[in-house]
Amino acid sequence: MCPRTKEQNELIRMQRREQILDAAARAYFRTGGGFDIRDVAREAELGYGTVYHYYPNRHLLIEDVLESGFERCEQTQAEWANTSGGGSDDKQLLTYGKTLLRLWQSDVRAYLVYKMASEHYAGLPEKDRHAAKRRFMDRLYAPLQSIAHREDDSVDLMLAVLVSCCGLHYYAGTSELDVDRIASLAMQAIMKEF
User: Fold this and answer.
1) Domain around 165
2) N or C: which end of the chain has fewer CB within 10 A?
3) Which residues, in sequence order, are CB contacts of 177 under 8 Å at separation 6+?
4) Which helix (H) or strand (E) holds 70?
5) Is the pLDDT score of 136 beyond 80?
6) Angstrom distance (rounded) from CA 14 to CA 86
C-alpha cells in the first residue's frame, strides 16, 4: 500500500471538516445551541480528539458553521437574482421562498443562518452578534426587502413562516418539505390573506 499523497490528505481533511460542520449544525438543533465538542463528535461519529484537532472550542466551530452557511445563502441569493426572470413582485417572492426552502432542506448550515437571525443571533458571543446581524441584514434581508417593495413587516412575516415550517422539518426529522405549500403559506402571510 502506497502512502497517501498530499492532495489525498487535503481532500480527506476537507471532507472531515465538512462532516464536523454539518454535525455541529445538527447538534445545535438537538441541544438548542448548548452543545459542546463531545456532542459534535458523537453526532459526526468521530473521536473527540479528531473534532478537537479541527476545532479546539465551540465558538470557533460556530463561527465556521455560520460562515459557510452565509456563503451558501449569499451564493444562492446571487444565483436566484441572476436567473429570476422578472415577473410580478409576488411571483418573485414566491419563487425566492421556494428557493430558500430547497436550500434549507439540503443544507442545515444555510438554514441555521436564518434560524439564528430570527433569534437575533442570541447564541453568539456579544462581540460576534453585531457583525452577524449586519451581514444578514445587508446581504440577505435587504435584497429580499427590495423585491417585496413593501415598507411594512411583510418580509419578516414571510421569513417567520418559512423558518418555522422548515424548523419543524429539522426537529421532527422528516425527510421532505412540502415546498409549494409552505411557500404559499408564506405568501399568504405577506398578503394578509387567510
Assistant:
1) 58-191
2) N
3) 101, 104, 105, 165, 166, 169
4) helix 58-83
5) yes
6) 38
Q: C-alpha cell of 119? A: 433569534
How far apart CA 55 and CA 19 sit, in angstroms, is: 12
Confidence of residue 194 (pLDDT cuts 50, 70, 90): very low
Q: What is the mean pLDDT of residues 1-6?
A: 82
Q: What pLDDT score was predicted for residue 162?
A: 93
> What CATH number is associated with residue 43?
1.10.10
Core vs surface per residue 170-193: b (16+ CB within 10 A) or e:
beeeeeebebeebbebbbebbeee
In a shared domain, residues 71 and 51: no
Phi–psi pair at 32, nearest 5 degrees: 70, 25
* pLDDT for res 1: 67
Same domain, 50 and 90: no
Averaged confidence pLDDT in the chain? 88
Domain co-membership, 71 together with 144: yes
Query: Is 82 in contact with 148 (CB distance < 8 Å)?
Result: no
How many domains, in total, are found in the chain? 2
Same domain for 92 and 15, yes or no, is no
Query: In the listed set 56, 73, 94, which residue is the last one of a domain according to the structure?
Result: 56
142 and 162 assigned to the same domain: yes
